[in-house]
Amino acid sequence: GGDHTITYPILQALAAKHGPLGLVHVDAHTDTGDRALGEKIYHGSTFRRCVDEGLLDCGRVVQIGIRGSSYEPNPYKYCREQGFRVVPAEECWMKSLEPLMREVRAQLGDKPMYISFDIDGLDPAYAPGTGTPEIAGLTPAQALEIIRGCKGLNIVGCDLVEVAPMYDVSGNTALLGANLLFEMLCVLPGVKTM
Q1: Taking a C-beta distance cutoff of 8 angstroms, is the pair 20, 54 a contact?
Q2: Model confidence over 64-85: pLDDT tens digits?
Q3: What is the value of pTM for the model shown?
Q4: I want to staple 76 with a disulfide (CB 3.0 to 4.6 A). Which of 5, 86, 112, 178 is the partner?
């Protein structure tokens, strides 16, 4: 879908109903910048604005696959100061993420939570159709492990953002995005799968 700014009003609405939410956030970037070109609301500030408004239960926020460019010398400092768990991409390389997701499920517990999946969390070898590709990302299999690892959590919403099909003539990014959204629908509470 659209850029990561769309998650901000969605979380405003969900937090108004459920209170501060837990979050599983898959991305190459933390999206906790303060300003860009003088603007406080943009796709790289989404989760800082959510913290500012108390929309997130910060001890129940996990960011997975973070890597790449940053405007800060310590790009994880703000997140960790808020209580987020940051899992850099290099901690995911060459291994199954099932053990990580067991820890994530324990951390998030049974309170309401949200899944926000930026397609650039995946390596651009698999998903080049995005505006801010970063090398050395997650694999599609790891993406499935993350999403399927959320089954049983109290998921109140989810999104998949930053797919830009015009940057991928093969169509693979859009196909991957559609499949990941399908997987998210399958892990929603009450959905029966085979």
Answers
A1: yes
A2: 999 987 877 888 999 999 999 9
A3: 0.97
A4: 86
